[in-house]
Amino acid sequence: MKRLDLGAIRLAICLGPGGVGKTTISAALALGAAVSGRSVDVMTVDPAPRLLDALGLNARVSEPHDVDLRGVRAAARDGDEPDGGKTSARGRLRAMRLEPRETFDAIVRRHAPSPAAAEAIIAGRIYRSLAGAFAGVADYMAMEKLLELTAEPATEFIVLDTPPASEAIDFLDAPRRLLALLDSRAVSLLAPRPGRFSGGVVDMAARAVLAAFDRVTGLKLLGDVQAFVKNFEGMYEGFAERARRAAAMLRAESTAAIVVTTAETGRIAQAGDFIAALGRADLRVHSVIVNRTMRELPDGLEIERAKMPAALKRKLRQNLTDYAALKTREAISFDALRAAMPSGATLLLAPELDHEPRTLSDLAQIGAQIHRA
What we know:
The protein is of the alpha/beta class.
C-alpha cells in the first residue's frame, strides 16, 4: 500500500464535516510525523476535547505541551505497531487547544506600545466585549497562533484541526475579513491613519450619536470608545500586516489542505460541496482522507472449507453477501468523491478500527494504515 507522504509539507490543515473523525485523523497524522522523527505541533480549534483526551492532556491546555512518545516508539521498534521500526528518537510532539481570549491578550501585550497601554486595553469594557463576543475573533486568533508556531525554527510540521465544515470556510477566511475590517470606513473614523482627514461631518455625527446614547443610558460609551481607540493607536498596521502573512501562509506551496470525510452518501456530498468552496477561496486541496473505511472482503472459500453446521454456513454466506453489497456502495462513494476532487489531489483511505480510538497506540495504528485508494 502506498502511504500518505507529507514530508514536504510544513502546515497541514484538516477540514471536513462534523462527526467524521477529523480530530482523530489530525492527531494521527501529527503523531505519525513525530514518531518518524519530525518536530511537530498539533492545535485544535474544535471545542470538543477529544484530541487532547486522546493525547492524554488537560482539556484547557492553551500553550503547546509535550506529549510522551516513549511507549509508541517502543511499540514501533518492537514491531507491535504497523510499519514497526520506522521510528526515530529525534522527533517530538506538542499539542494544544486554542483559547481565543488568552491568545488575544498575549498578542496585545506583545504588540502594544507599552505595558501600561496593554493593560489599559485589556481592562477596558470595549476590549472585553470584543474579545469575548466579536464574530471571527476565535478564527483570527487561531491564525495568530499559527503564525507564532511557524516562526519557531525548531517546529518542522504543524497540524491544525479546524471547526466543522459549516464554519471552516469562515475560519480560513478570517485574515481577509480582518483586513477588510481594518480598511473599512468605520475603523477609518475611529482610528484614522496618519495623513488621513478626521473630524469631519460623519465623524462628528458618530460622536453625537454616541454622546446621545451616553446621556440616555449612562453607559459612557463615547469615553470607552475614545480610550480604546487611543490605546490601540499604532497597533492596527501590525494586525493588518500579520493578517496578510496569515493569508499568504494558507496559500503557500508548503501548506496542505486535507479534507476528511466518511463514505456515507450524505458525507460524500458534503465533502464535495466543501472541496468546491475551498476552490472558490483559492485554497489548494492536497488530499482527501476517507475515514473508517471497510476492511477487505474475506475469502468465501474459507466458509466452504470450514467444518461447521450447514445452518451456520448459510448465515455466514449471507453475511458475506451483505458485506460485499456494502463494499460496492462504498466503492461508488469513492468514485463520486474522485469526480469532485481537483486535479492533483490524492484520495486516501483510513480503515476503521474495531474499537473507538482512545490511546496513542490507537492513533499510531490509524496513522500507519492511511494509504492511497
